[in-house]
Amino acid sequence: MTALTAPTPTATPSPAPAPHLLRWLIRLHRPALYIWGALLVVTTATLLWLGGPLTDDAAAAWREYRACSPQPELCPYEQDAIIRYKDVYNYATIVVLAIPFLVAAWAGASLIGRELENGTDRLAWTQSVSPAHWLAAKLAAPAVLVTAGTGLLVLLHHLAWSASKGKIDTAKPWHDSLTFFAGGPVTVALALTGLLVGALAGLVLRRSLAGLGAGAVAVAGLWFAVWQALPYLWPAETRISSLQEGPALVGDEVRYGLLTTSGERIADPNCGGTFIPVCRPVMERLDAAAYYTDFHPASHYWPLQLTATAVVLVVAAAATLIAFRLVRRRTG
Fold it and tell me: What is the pLDDT of residues 263-309, one digit of tens each?
């Protein structure tokens, strides 16, 4: 008998190799990468200048001003150094706070919206790249760059602000809203969330201009919500003051009012303390016994920062989950 020769199995063509998504992403968004790098370099240099020479010059001017008491206006001091410090601080703070809005607008318009509008997303999917893999690659590299870059600027801003404490009389307090956000991790979380929310807006609207506007508006709404909720994210402390003293002005005030003799909290009629004669009958009629003030001391700085950051990161996680589910539902 003749031995049967087993047929040679036909080689199945292997799928085309997937493109190097990171290299493709860098090539596609090279202008945005250059702008991001330039923004980091210029802002970093400004913050280093602010926390170093500008702070030293302004502190020296304030020492000269205080040494001329009781008539400092008649003594020479470097007023320009004080004004220069204030201007640069305000501009640098605005730039740091603008990053989440810029990132959200770019993610909604250029990163996602423009590709869906032009159909280049489906071209990538035909090159052995799954839609989920495509979206993960689109988000991963920008997320690393945004987090690292924003974290650097936030750290430098916090150090520059810390260098002025006790040296510059017009330095912002820790609970100043812009200073609080620009110098803490909550802004890093907002920038990362801006990337993810902007990408989600681009996926939903599939238009670059609409994604740009929706991403920026979403970050603005989130920032406003966190700002409004911030005083209530951590338990406040309470200080009691007499009717003669008036409400205690300490730390970041949450609320204040009057305490009755029974311990009930009521609104302050804003008449003033009992040292004002016309206010004494008002306090007696209200059965007021003292003032109360709920406030956050400086020791609550980091608890408030970390709690707000956690809240924002929950929104980021939700936006990521919705984005991947949306892509899966559209592509099967």
Answer: 899 998 888 777 888 888 888 888 989 999 999 999 999 999 999 99
Is-contact 51 156, C-beta < 8 A? yes
Q: Are 86 and 104 in contact (CB under 8 A)?
A: no
As a whole number of angstroms, the distance between CA 332 and CA 142 comes to 26
Taking phi first (over 0 means left), then psi (-120 to 50 degrees means alpha), and beta for anything else, what does residue 272 get? left
Residue 301 to residue 299: CA distance in whole angstroms: 5
Structural domain boundaries enclosing 288: 237-298
Task: Kindly give the parts of the chain with pLDDT less than 50.
Answer: 1-19
**Residues 181, 275: one domain?**
no
**Domains in the chain, number:** 2
pLDDT of 71 reads: 65
Residue count of the chain:
332
**Three-point CA angle 314, 318, 324, nearest 5°:** 145
Contacts of 272 (CB under 8 A, 6+ apart): 246, 279
The pTM assigned to this predicted structure is 0.86
Alpha helices in the chain (DSSP H): 21-28, 30-49, 55-67, 79-106, 114-118, 120-125, 131-163, 177-182, 185-205, 208-229, 280-286, 301-331
**Statement to judge: residues 178 and 285 lie in one domain:** no
